[in-house]
Design brief:
With 305 residues, this protein is mostly beta strands. The protein is 12% helix and 41% strand. The protein is built from 3 helices and 17 strands. The protein has helices at 3-25, 228-232, 293-300, and strands at residues 49-52, 73-84, 92-101, 112-119, 122-126, 129-132, 138-147, 162-171, 184-192, 199-210, 216-221, 236-243, 246-253, 265-267, 269-271, 277-282, 285-291. The chain has a 9-stranded antiparallel beta sheet. It has a 5-stranded antiparallel beta sheet with strand order 1-2-7-4-5, with no helix packed on it. Strands 6-3-8 form a 3-stranded antiparallel beta sheet, with no helix packed on it. The longest helix is centred in the N-terminal third of the chain and has 23 residues, at 3-25. It is flat and about 105 Å long. The termini are far apart.
Length: 305
């Protein structure tokens, strides 16, 4: 093979090699591209306001009592206001603080100042400083002033004082409900008093949870036993109901002697005056007492319904 033939062969081989490399370099894989632009994000609104009776945001000097206060006067509604949640969907906590100062409100003053909140269609006295999660979109308050007769009325003639009202709304974390029953099992004591005779049992399993409608349920498994409570009361559950703006409870038991599914008892009153004790009443007669601080805390929290 002469020089020219050799060079031709090398040139041919180089050409094939270059063609092969070029062919490999142009191999394509499936590919797609997607783009989404101009997507608007909007922060939640925190639109909570405290307004007076005329719907105006509360401010300084909105209730001046002047010389309207005197011994023996009828109760005076000095001011009323409400807290509006408006379009706020975030969980929120309110703090309402009423502060008195000046000679008129000295420690020995006969002048009485009351802060009341409208709860379940009734005006209820509350502390001068309260913090709570709202139950309604509108929470109503009022400030009352009294001057009952006393031995030192004359000492306060012409005295002046100041009333400072502060309302603070703060975003808070939502209350997380457990995933499902049972939530709690403990040596809880139950005492039932049907027809005037008292029966007691303890060490019972208790499940408390929200049902599909969002109402609270307390379910008690009495278990095997030959005592009066097991025989007369049996397993039972307490179900929360909401009728209008009133929250009440029904007691279901499996024993005809006490109540049955066909004889549902409405609980007319729930007494939680003693921390850790829940007393259910019907027609002013105590018929079931539960002792458990864990259950008490859950039971006394208001439903989201």
């Amino acid at each position: 093979m002469n020089f020219f033939k050799k060079n031709k062969l090398w040139i041919s081989l180089i050409g094939v090699l270059l063609l092969t490399i070029a062919t490999i370099g142009t191999i394509a894989y499936f590919s797609k591209s997607f783009t989404s632009d101009n997507n608007v994000a909007v922060a939640a609104k925190f639109d909570v306001e405290a307004v007076n009776g005329q719907g105006q945001t509360i401010g300084d000097g909105q209730f001046a009592l002047g010389e309207d206060l005197y011994p023996g006067m009828p109760t005076l509604e000095a001011y009323n206001f409400q807290i509006n949640k408006n379009n706020t969907t975030l969980p929120v906590e309110y703090k309402v603080h009423l502060e008195r100062s000046g000679a008129l409100f000295a420690e020995n003053s006969p002048v009485k100042l009351s802060l009341q909140r409208f709860i379940n269609n009734n005006w209820v006295d509350v502390d001068y400083s309260t913090t709570f999660r709202p139950e309604n979109d509108i929470e109503k308050y009022r400030v009352l002033v009294d001057w009952p007769h006393s031995d030192n009325d004359i000492d306060f003639q012409g005295a002046t004082g100041n009333i400072k009202l502060e309302v603070v709304a703060t975003q808070v974390d939502p209350i997380e409900e457990p995933a499902g029953p049972p939530y709690y099992t403990d040596a809880i004591t139950f005492k039932a008093t049907p027809n005037g005779s008292t029966r007691t049992t303890s060490n019972k399993e208790v499940n408390f949870y929200k049902d599909e409608q969002g109402f609270k349920v307390i379910q008690v498994t009495v278990g095997d036993g030959s005592g009066d409570f097991e025989e007369k009361v049996g397993n039972f559950k307490i179900v929360e109901n909401v009728e209008g703006s009133t929250t009440w409870y029904r007691l279901y038991t499996e024993k005809e002697y006490y109540a049955s599914e066909s004889q549902v008892w409405r609980v007319d009153n729930v007494d939680t005056s003693i921390d850790g004790t829940i007393t259910l009443k019907r027609a002013n007669n105590t018929f079931l007492t539960i002792q458990s601080k864990e259950l008490y805390k859950w039971f006394t929290e208001k439903s989201d319904k």
